[in-house]
Design goal:
With 202 residues, the protein is of the alpha/beta class. It has a single domain, classed as Rossmann fold. It has eight helices and nine strands. Strands 5-4-3-6-7-9-8 form a seven-stranded mixed beta sheet, sandwiched between helices. Strand 6, helix 5 and strand 7 form a beta-alpha-beta unit. The relative contact order is 0.15.
């Protein structure tokens, strides 16, 4: 298993390999359930969620360095030892860096909808994505989804609904009330959030 350096004063994981799974025991002081947000934006959601749940570990994944630095600042300001950030593309992280069946939950909020039909092939959540998620989740793990794009939402529930490994469940009220940076912006403009959640067998 690949190691990664994470200075206690720096929550950004410095990858020493991009082809071997992370050593989670090296990243976190405590061995406890792990939740991952793919595309964590400015970490508004994740930093607050990690603060509320010190009994869990959290990783935020973002390809943009500026956003990962915001996670670092917010996490350090709150004194969080259960939060880390990884700068890399989300599907690559799931495929190569997250140890198999290690996450109790995945959070995927407002991924790029690639609205033009010819660009749909670039969407993170496609026909093969549920298998990638299933391989990442521990038994009984949950994937939480949010988007403002109706067409993309239809695709999300279509591909997960067609997968026998997932059962649709309700999103818990605590998660509904915790907003991302995009969601605050959309709400202010009267744009509705579309949500779905799917659980794997325990």
């Amino acid at each position: 298993m690949a190691s990664a350096s994470s200075n206690p004063s720096d929550l950004i994981v410095e990858l020493r390999s991009i082809v071997e799974p992370l050593d989670l025991a090296e990243l976190f002081r405590k061995s406890q359930p792990l939740e991952v947000e793919l595309g964590c934006g400015d970490a508004s959601f994740l930093a607050e969620y990690a603060r509320r749940h010190p009994e869990r570990n959290f990783i935020g994944v973002e390809r943009l360095l500026g956003r990962i630095r915001k996670l670092d600042r917010k996490g350090q300001r709150a004194g969080l030892t259960n939060l880390r950030g990884v700068q890399i593309e989300s599907s690559y992280f799931l495929h190569y860096l997250l140890p198999p069946h290690s996450a109790s939950a995945l959070h995927i909020y407002f991924p790029d909808p690639w609205p033009k039909k010819r660009h749909h092939k670039n969407r993170l959540i496609n026909e093969s994505f549920p298998q990638l998620v299933f391989a990442a989740l521990a038994p009984g793990g949950v994937v939480y989804l949010r988007t403002d794009d109706e067409d993309y939402f239809a695709q999300m529930i279509g591909v997960f609904g067609a997968s026998k490994e997932f059962q649709r469940i309700e999103t818990p009220p605590e998660l509904v009330e915790l907003l991302t940076d995009f969601e605050r912006e959309f709400r202010a403009r009267g744009i509705q959030t579309l949500r779905a959640a799917y659980r794997t067998p325990a």
